[in-house]
Amino acid sequence: MLPYFRKSEGLAPSDEIPVDGPAHNNAGPLGVAVRSPVLRAASDFVEAAVAAGIPRGDYNGRDRGGAAGVVSLAQSTTRRGKRSSTYHAFLEGEAEHRPNLKIITGAQATRVILESQSRQMEAKGVEYRLASGEIDTVHADREVILSAGAIGSPHLLLLSGIGPRPELEAVGVPCLLDQPHVGKHLKDHLLVPLLFPAPGLGVTMNEIALSMGPAALRGPGGPLPADPADDANLPADLQALKQEAERRITEWETTAGRA
Ligand SMILES: Cc1cc2nc3c(=O)[nH]c(=O)nc-3n(C[C@H](O)[C@H](O)[C@H](O)COP(=O)(O)OP(=O)(O)OC[C@H]3O[C@@H](n4cnc5c(N)ncnc54)[C@H](O)[C@@H]3O)c2cc1C
After folding, report:
1. Ligand 1 pocket test target in 77, 112, 137 with most atoms within 8 Å of CB
2. Residue 191 lies in a domain
3. Does ligand 1 come within 6 angstroms of the Cβ of 255?
4. Predicted structure pTM score
5. What does the DSSP assignment read for the chain?
6. Fewest CB atoms within 10 Å of the CB: 120, 192, 224, 248?
7. How far apart, in whole angstroms, are the C-alpha atoms of residue 86 and residue 79?
């Protein structure tokens, strides 16, 4: 996979992390960056781990340090403070207007169309459903590439008749290719947050919510009314909170994305 990861990646150069150069590319379309500004709590955490004997390293490099692991500030799929989504990275701009590319949105793929070719099964196209309920198909001259995610891709294979025969037949899907492993062995990526009081070091969840604009502060659970139409008679302290949230999100919208 490494040649393809390198082709994709546009890692922003940073002095803040150890980078395994040959495992990365700085010029690809998918933005990867260290969060900026670096929070003191984050750099203190890295230093504490180093002091405890965990080597500094590049966890997106070729060597993750074996059993000892490595410690680093996190790299995230962002470019200049904004998420580098699939659309922004690969489609937006020139690419989405290419004459040999047609993007169909608001559609759900319902089946890969399979045909038997001299005892071999070939994927010949995809059937999909539009929001209107209308069913349509596209035909493939060369190949069909499924990229519907860890759950969506096996789901589509199962709907297409590729999967464990007994399970498909039990729900009335004709089995075209008996593949007992399809839809099995999902490995989740577990994350365990450990929370400690660290006054003055980090950023509180309230601060984060405030920086996400007024919508993040609305009910249920938030201090602002669920419906913006009910903001008219806000008490002065909530009015000030709303204004500060608006100021922060506007600052982000107008400055993020700039070099
Ligand atoms: C909160 C979060 C943060 C993450 N942060 C990072 C990060 O910073 N860096 C990193 O490297 N990884 C990160 N990951 C992991 C990364 O997002 C995934 O590994 C990656 O998105 C997988 O890409 P994919 O194209 O295989 O599938 P997905 O991104 O899941 O894309 C599948 C797409 O197919 C669509 N789809 C599914 N079924 C159908 C259907 N039947 N018809 C039509 N469309 C369908 C889905 O709607 C979806 O848009 C993060 C994941 C999460 C959840």
Report:
1. 77
2. no
3. no
4. 0.81
5. -HHHHHHHEEEPP-SSS---GGG--SSSSEEEEE-SSPPHHHHHHHHHHHHTTPPB--TTSS---GGG--B-PPEESEETTEE--HIIIIITTTGGG-TT-----SEEEEEEEEEEETTEEEEEEEEEEETTS-EEEEE-SS-----SHHHHHHHHHHHTTEE-HHHHHHTT---SEE-TTTT---------------TTTS--HHHHHHHT-GGGGBSSSSSB-SSGGGGTT--HHHHHHHHHHHHHHHHHHHHTT--
6. 192
7. 12
Residue 124 one-letter amino acid: K
The answer to whether residue 77 sits within a structural domain is yes
Where a domain ends, among 178, 197, 229?
Answer: 178
Per the structure, the complete domain to which residue 93 belongs is given by 2-97
State whether the beta carbon of 151 lies less than 6 angstroms from ligand 1: no
pLDDT 10s digits, 28-77: 999 999 988 888 889 999 999 999 999 999 999 988 888 889 999 999 99
| 198: in domain | no
Say how many domains are in the chain.
Answer: 3
